[in-house]
Amino acid sequence: MMMASRRGGAKLAGSMMLVSRSFSKPISRGVIAKEAVTAKAVGFHGDVLRKNIGEFWVRGSVFGVRHGSTVSFGEKDQQKTEMKQTPPVADGGDKEEKKEIASYWGVPPKRVTKEDGTEWKWNCFRPWETYSADLSIDLKKHHLPATFLDKIAFWTVKALRLPTDLFFQRRYGCRAMMLETVAAVPGMVGGMLLHCKSLRRFEQSGGWIKTLLDEAENERMHLMTFMEVAKPKWYERALVITVQGVFLNAYFIGYIISPKFAHRMVGYLEEEAIHSYTEFLKELDKGNIENVPAPSIAIDYWRLPPTATLRDVVLVVRADEAHHRDVNHFASDIHYQGRELKEAPAPIGYH
């Protein structure tokens, strides 16, 4: 009986040595140290098997007791420690590398550079969309209101100016910001309605869709520029939301009823913008408003020199408003003649 027990124990020890050789020394040591069990746990007796039976109990997956892992306990502890010590990368951190957006659809982001080879940093517009403003435009042109609709448009704009003067007074930076949030609406509304009309009638627009949308984009760039100069307060932002919501819906209805009235009203609105920017320039020249360096977005958009100041920005913005005045009065005249906009070539690129 003793001989049979010794022979069985020897066979079992040999099989355990074969199993233990398939694992590294750190594994064996980690298992013995952490999960050592006695030989009685598997029904054997004797001191010979008591030392190594723990390893067989944990790692002996051939008997279906427990599946072994290829990583030792020591290595697992080390991995957990490394994971705890690795600090998470904060979103938007200064040291975080900017990763390019990858897409399956084959639309890779293009790297655009300036003429001097430096990287172009604006995604809202590209170098081929920039221009030099025409400062030689006549700023004193005015359309005399002759018809009934012209008078309504003229006095509507005058009425809108009164609360603006009371609220902003001589804070022309915030005044310009408020003005541009309204001035960018008509071009978008008119371009959208002409776009839908072109689709309904299966006809071209004579380029007026692009002209009006370009006007809206140009006015929006005015806003992006003055946002860098005048930091609006929370109540000014709330006022912008309110005024824009009311004006957008009112202008939408007005354009559907009478496009010639709508364009005439915008023409008068641009005349008021010219007056406001002229007063802005006077305050800059008097020293009441600090002539700070021009924002970098304005320098790139209007191709201004690197030494440009806020006064230079106001000059080019005022010139843009004068061009928008001409375009909208011209569009209104086309409608007054009983013709459609598509019959006259649109002044594309007329800033």
From TrEMBL:
Chain positions covered by the region annotation Disordered: 74-95
Annotated keywords: Electron transport, Iron, Membrane, Metal-binding, Mitochondrion, Mitochondrion inner membrane, Oxidoreductase, Respiratory chain, Transit peptide, Transmembrane, Transmembrane helix, Transport
Gene Ontology terms describing biological process: alternative respiration
Compartment(s) of residence: Mitochondrion inner membrane
Membrane topology: Multi-pass membrane protein
Cofactor(s) for this UniProt protein: Fe cation
Basic and acidic residues bias locations: 74-83
InterPro entries, per database record: AOX, AOX_sf
Any one GO molecular-function label of the UniProt entry: superoxide-generating NADPH oxidase activity
Cofactor note: Binds 2 iron ions per subunit.
E.C. number(s) listed in UniProt: 1.10.3.11
GO cellular component, one term: respiratory chain complex
Catalytic activity: 2 a ubiquinol + O2 = 2 a ubiquinone + 2 H2O
Enzyme class: oxidoreductase
The keyword Iron appears for this protein: yes
Similarity section: Belongs to the alternative oxidase family.
Subunit field text: Homodimer; disulfide-linked.
Alphabetized PANTHER family for the sequence: ALTERNATIVE OXIDASE (PTHR31803:SF3)
Record-given protein name: Ubiquinol oxidase
Source species: Salix udensis
